[in-house]
Every structure is written in C-alpha cells, then in structure tokens.
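Section 3.1: Structural characterization of target chains.
Under the original work plan, the team committed to producing a structural model for every single-chain target entering the pipeline before any wet-lab resources were allocated. The record below documents one such target. The sequence was received from the expression subgroup and is listed exactly as submitted; it comprises 608 residues.
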Amino acid sequence: MKNALILAVLLICSSLAVFAQGYTTQPADALVVPIGVAGTAYESMDLGVRGGTLNVSTIEDPKGWNNSTAHETSTTTFTGRMGRGLVNLDHITGAIVPDFAKSWEISDDSLVITFHLREGIMWSDGVPITADDVVFTYNDVILNEDVDTNQRDGQLLPDGTYPVCAKVDDYTVTFTMSTVFRPALNSLSFVILPKHALADSVHKLNPAVPAGTFNETWTLDTPLDQLVGNGPYIVTDYQPNVSVTMTRNPYYYGYDSAGTQLPYYDNYVCQIVTNQDVSMLKFRNGEIDVYGLRPEDIPILLPEGAQKGFSVKITDEPGYGTTWFLINQDIGLAEGTDTEKRDLYRNVQFREAMAYCIDKQTMITNVFNGLAGPQWSPVSVPSPFYAGRDYYGGPITESNAVIFEYDPAKAAGILDSLGVVDQDGDGWRDLPSGAPLTMELNTNDNTVRVASCLILQDDWRSIGLNATFQVVDFNTLVDRLFGASGDLIYLGLTGGDEPNSGSNVYNSCGALHAYRYSACDEPDEVDQRIDELLSLGAGTFDLDEAFDYYTEYQQLLAHQLGYVYTVVQTFQYAYYNYVGNANFSSTISTPAGNNGLLTELCFDKRLQ
C-alpha cells in the first residue's frame, strides 16, 4: 500500500484477451465477502447481480500495464484491478484482511510470517497460482536491483536488511525477518505476478536477456492477450486518449455470500478525457456512472440529483493522501548548471519564505468552497499516527502541528536577509549575484490543482518573486519529477494509515524522494534522523512508542520543507442511484477509485 503519484503514447492496435472457461463451481478456497450477513461490516450492503458495464473517467492515459514498475496512479488504476496480493484492505473498515492468502500466522518472536495460499485458484489464462508466483514476485522482481520499482523501499527492515521469502510447499510461503517489523503485513500487500508469463524477462533468471529487460515488459505496445492477472478484471481494449476497457476475469476467486462470483459488473470502462470539466459534463449527461466530484461541482449537481436520479455524498471527513509543491533542490545538478539557484533552493530559509507565502485559506474558500482544511504533515489526517493527535488514535487537537501561517511580510523579510532582492529595479527579486531569479511552477490539467497553482503564483509574485505557472501533461510531469528537472512541481500522493508506507518518499534513498534525490549520497543530519525515525517507528509493536517516533518524524519533515503541504479536501462523491452499493463510497474506497476495492461489489440495479 505504497504511496504513489496521484495521477504519451503512440497509437497502438488493441487486441482482445483470450480467456479460459473459468470455474465450473465455486472453489473451496474462494474469498467470500459477507455481503448482507448480520454482524459483519457488510450487513447493510446489498447482494448484487452480474452483468452490465460500469462507466468511469480519468484525465490521463496509463503508462503501461506492469504494476511493479508503475510510479503513477494513471497506471495503477488499472494494474491494481488486474492483480491482487496476499493481503488487502477491507472495503469498509480499512483493516488488513486476507486476499490471495487465506490465512497467516506470526511466530512467537514476531520474526516469521507464514502465509497459507488459496488452493485451486487460477490465473486469468487458466494456469494455477502457487507459492512459486509469490516467491518470484518478491525475490526476483521486488528485491531485484535491476527492476525499477517503488515497492522495494517499503520492504526495508529497520536494520537495513529485507525479509527472506521462502517456499514451504506449493501453497505455503514464509517471510523471515531479522528484526521486528510492525508494518510487515502492510508492506507484503504487493500485487502477485505470474511467473510463467514474466520470468523469461528477468535477467537473473534468464541471463540471455539484458539487465533491465523486465522494466520494458507489459508496456502499452504489449498485445493485450499477453496480459495475465489474478484480480477481478483484465485489460481487454485500449484506445489511446479515448478509453481503457477491462473485462471480468473468469478465474477471479472472489464470491459474495450467496455464491455469486465477483465482480458483479462484466466490464469496467474508463473514458480518458481532457480535464475534470469534461468528466463533470459526462456525469451530468449520464455517460459515466460515478464521479469523484470537486467542491465547485456541488452547487451544480445538488439541484439536479432528484430529477436525474443521482446522489451527492458530502462529508467533513478529511481524505487520505497529501497535496504539495516541491522546490527542486537538485535543479541543474545533473547538467552542471544553475549552481546559485540550487544553493538557494537548498537553503531551508528560502523554502520557509515560500511556505510563509501560501494563502491556504483562500485556497480552501475559493477552490474548495470551504470543503477542505490546511495540511502540514506527510501522514494522512485519518491515520491514528497523524501527529495532529496527542496520542495514538486520539482526537485531533493539532497541538503538535508545525504551521507556517500566511505572512507575506515575514516571507519578504526572510528573502531580504538572504540577499534575494530587486537589484535592477524591474520589480522582481534577483539572485544574490544579481542574476535574474525566475521560477516556473508546473502541474497537470487538473482544475483544482490549476486553481491552487494560480493562487500560489499570485502569492509569490506579490512579494516580488518572478514565478510563472505552466500546465503540462501528467505523465510528462512524472518524468520531470523522476528526472529532477524544473523548478517547482505541484502534485499529490496517495496515503494510508501506516507512516512507514511513505518510506519510498521520505527515506533519503526513497524512489520518490523527488525534492532532493542527491540526499541518498549526501544526507544531512535531518535526513539521517528521518531515516532513523522511520526505522524506529516500524521496529516496535508498542503503538504509543511508534506514535512518538512518528510524531518527531512528521515534525522534522514539516520543518525540512521538502514537500511543502497545502490543503486536503474532505470526502465527496457522486453516483447514479442505479449503481448498487455506491452509497458505501468513503475515503477508503470508491467504485472508480485508484484502489479498486469497491468496484467489484457494485452492480447495476436495473438488471435485477
């Protein structure tokens, strides 16, 4: 359950996947969701019927179909539905529950987790899934240094080693740790990959292929009939800039309490649109069935709901994830340019000046219609580890918050003290050498982000910083992020309850440590302490002790101002009333959400 980036392809020919027959009867080891069963979290949910198509939308094309090498939600939206792992989040409660593993036990010393896999379960092409697939995914992909994956960071133990994955028999695997690692179950939620379909692309298993070949597997030009998964859906059609169609996997192992195989919908069609305005229009026209609305949409949608047959769910619950901008502290490093600008960006006082000049309240009022709150921590507000609480799981008091109140005069004073002043009388502050200081802020064509960036641009320009704003394609933006190019980037990250899941971002060698990748080779004292605190928090089962470590971690990151946090939107969602169980949409899961958890439980009531 890694952080990943919220939210360029050539025209390719789509091909329909060829599926095997599917199960003739429900497997004995099927995953049964207790829909309608009294005494469970699902007792109020409705049993559904199979058939129909769930229509959703996105504003970005995927970058490929390989979950392990994906760095962006434009890809994992689909790969997360195509594959599932040993464990998952509960659709309703958010608790860690069995998925492809039917059960597990933890040794008395907490160093060995033994997973018992579901027997008689097949990949979408009819090949049995066994422990070999789990071992292949972990040892030969995730821990393989040749593979470009975000998932490796989350496996790192507090002592710098990794769990050892071993096969006991065809349906039993163990993960043995050298030290206690409380978030182990979180980190072992990785999507399982089919060894029979991908092993030949792994250099360590097939020396005839060059190192790194796996990174080029299951790309957008891969024939779709070669894709194999164990999740509820498989990609069966892709039209660049138009749509992605996913079709039910006949060998998916999920069933409801009445014995109906999941998912209920036969197809999941994601229309690719230019921006959120188009998504909004398509929802109003009934072309898509569910919609993650913006606050600005609410006054338009509420009066139409009764007439058009849809509901608008509005809550005051802060969502998971973070929204931020970063100041690229490695600007020009690879090219040997921008030395003075890089030195300035690495000066925490300069970053403080930028932080003091963010009018978050104007963002909340004008962009979110009041349905948002200020954000300061890398940990999602709903997490029991959020440092805005006084103790683990306690009420939110914000007594530990690190706040940079909006104070343009203070920001200007800091810049003056750094020698960042207007030296040539053109109205814009210059670098201390007298060279012009220009900064470009980039985000993707997301109307909420664009509106937020326009406010940031105005804020910074009001104190004499020559900041300009430019929209770029999301996948291009991700490339810039990983290439440490450009000045300022405004984006977001997904989030969850466990702070260690952010180790791929906040550890100094994390794959998404995008504000200063060079920290891996040259960590300062703060970087080293953050790394230490992540390890300490993960290395204890004492939740109060972990909370204390993670509180210091959050405060240090907030002061470091690598990612500079802005605001978090409260949860809102819209759905047509014929989409069964869509009313259970929450911050944990939505029908069209990136986690894909609720999708398989929604159904078309019109088919009943």
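Residues 5-18 have pLDDT under 50 and may be disordered.
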